[in-house]
Amino acid sequence: LEAELLEHKLANGDHSDVRHSMTRITRNAYFLERMVQDLLDLCSVEAGVLELHPAPTEVRTLLEDVIDRVTTTRDRGRVFLRAEAPITMTIDDLRIERVVANFLQNALKYAPDHTGIIVRLEDRGTRVCVSVIDTGPGLAPADMARVFDKFTRTASARVREGSGLGLYVSKRIIEAHGGHIGVESVQGAGLRFFF
């Protein structure tokens, strides 16, 4: 609908608010892409055939790319990457990118517009930790226990677009890599999703 309205405006010489229309179209295209990928991965997980394609990947560059792709121009000043040194790991880069994108999109969606979001990469010797940290409303203790369950949406999430699959599929992707995924929350003070 937004694309049709934009096409109509441009055909009539009306160039007002083109940027807003393009932002909405792009955001909705990302949402559809994410939903389709979540459904495809859900089918693979349910069938027990989630296939990884690992390759050496420089994780800091991957995070930079995710931030660039997921963050709109309006939100660019809110997202900060904290990564001291390049770290190369053998991972399925497209699937790890989806996990980080999911965390970042959720942070952008639920944290207040004027607050910052940190994407942090930490080298912990034999393991690496990636975190997305926001200062949003956090989660109630009851929601913390279910946040990675299939089709689960918290009360605050129900008023926003989503399918309740993103965090479930993210958990399965990280587990398929032999990793651990988690969330820490202080209700009213923010969230830290990590793997």
Summarize the structure.
The protein has 195 residues and is of the alpha+beta class. The chain has helices at residues 2-11, 18-46, 59-70, 93-110, 141-144, 166-176, and strands at 55-58, 79-83, 88-91, 117-124, 127-134, 182-186, 190-194.
Q: Would you kindly provide a written description of the structure presented here, covering whatever features stand out?
A:
There is one protein chain. By secondary structure, the chain is α+β, with helices and mostly antiparallel strands. It contains six helices and seven strands; from the N terminus they run ααβαββαββααββ. The strands form two sheets. It has a five-stranded mixed β-sheet, covered by helices on one side. The protein has a two-stranded antiparallel ribbon with strand order 1-3. A hairpin with a 3-residue loop joins β6 (182-186) and β7. α1 runs antiparallel to α2, α3 crosses α4 (93-110) and α4 (93-110) packs antiparallel against α6. 26% of the residues are buried. The mean pLDDT is 85.
Keywords summarizing the entry:
6 helices, alpha+beta, about 200 residues, two-stranded antiparallel sheet, globular
Supply the number of helical segments. 6
Q: What form results from the Cα inertia axes?
A: globular
> Strand order across the biggest sheet?
2-4-5-7-6
SSE string, helices as H and strands as E: HHEHEEHEEHHEE
Helical content, roughly? 40-55%
The main sheet comes to: 5 strands, mixed
- Low confidence ranges: none
Structural class: alpha+beta
Instruction: Please report which band the strand proportion falls in: under 5%, 5-15%, 15-25%, 25-35%, 35-45% or over 45%.
Output: 15-25%
Separation of the first and last Cα atoms: 37 Å
Number of strands: 7
Mean pLDDT comes to 85
Q: Nearest-angstrom radius of gyration? A: 18 Å
